[in-house]
Amino acid sequence: MEFDELLKNEEPLPDRGFTRAVMLRVERHRRQRRVAIAIAMIVAAVIALIAPPSSPTTAPSTELVVAALILMAVCSLVWIETERTA
Amino acid sequence: MADRAEQDPREAVWIARVIAHDDHEAFGELVALHQSAVRRFLLRLTSNDPSRADDLAQDTFLKAYRHIRSFQARGRFLSWMFRIAWQLFVTEVRGRHGIAEVALPDEIRAHDDAGQRVADARTFDQMMDMLRPDERAAIVLHYRHELTHPEIAEILEMPLGTVKSLLRRAHTRLREAHGIR
């Protein structure tokens, strides 16, 4: 028998809960993404409350720049953690 | 199992629904459609280790879900899945033992009874285990899924000439070692 025939004659593998297991992981991934976005929004809101711009023409203060950098770092860490555990 | 000859026409619709609406149900249909092909491919690569193959298969589908927007229908969805599965398998092998652990030709264990003529699936599994993982992958993709050499080269991220050599060598060794015609 040709081995391509042997390969072609293989029975399909029964699912046996595989699809369900994948979909649970997909759902967990979506949940983590939502949490990451929520955290980023909370941090952004906190910064907005702490350091409101005094005037649209005023240069950003040092505190605002630092806060923005912290926001970026936090979002990055959350993002990396989400990707790692997903 | 979705072959070249028997591609499910609903596949494109499900992919579009996942991309456009993040449709959970449509992605479930894609998983159900391709789970057998992807898991069998990984079973071959892992020398029939079901637990390891299923772990890698789950990772494959999750990665496909996360990056489905990059698919863009340039080729077959299943080929794209095989590419992800192969990348994850290679990464896993490197992570576990270093790439050298992917069996080299001189490390292949000898068959217990090289003169035995075989035609059953169990012995065929043993035959396949004698090949290197990249040879196994090329054989399955070419003979089981009827992929062309360029398609296999893209999946395995190898030059076309290397894929042709892999297939020729694997083909010859299977025939010579076991006398299958």
- The oligomeric state is heterodimer
Low-pLDDT regions of chain A: none
- Structural class given helices, strands, pairing of chain A? mainly alpha
**CATH architecture tag of the largest domain in chain B:** Orthogonal Bundle
If helices are DSSP runs of H or I spanning 4 or more residues, what is the number of helices of chain B? 8
| Fold-level CATH name of the largest domain in chain B | Rna Polymerase Sigma Factor, Chain: A
Number of strands of chain B: 0
Distance separating the two termini of chain A: 44 Å
Summarize the structure in words.
The complex is a heterodimer of chains A (86) and B (181). With 86 residues, chain A is mainly α. Chain A has one domain. Chain A has three helices and no strands. Chain A has helices at 3-8, 18-50, 62-85. In chain A, helix 2 (18-50) packs antiparallel against helix 3. Chain B has 181 residues and is an all-alpha fold. Chain B is built from eight helices and no strands. In chain B, helix 6 crosses helix 8. Chain B is globular and about 50 Å long. The model of chain B is unreliable at 99-119 (pLDDT under 50). The chains are: A mainly alpha (86), B mainly alpha (181).
Short note summarizing the structure:
The complex is a heterodimer of chains A (86) and B (181). Chain A is an all-alpha fold and 86 residues long.
Task: Describe the secondary structure blueprint for this structure.
The complex is a heterodimer of chains A (about 90) and B (about 180).
Chain A: H1 3-8, H2 18-50, H3 62-85
Helix pairs in contact in A: 2-3
Chain B: H1 10-21, H2 24-45, H3 50-66, H4 77-97, H5 121-129, H6 133-144, H7 149-156, H8 160-178
Keywords:
heterodimer; A: 86 residues; mainly alpha; B: 181 residues; Rna Polymerase Sigma Factor, Chain: A; Arc Repressor Mutant, subunit A; 8 helices; 66% helix; 0% strand; globular
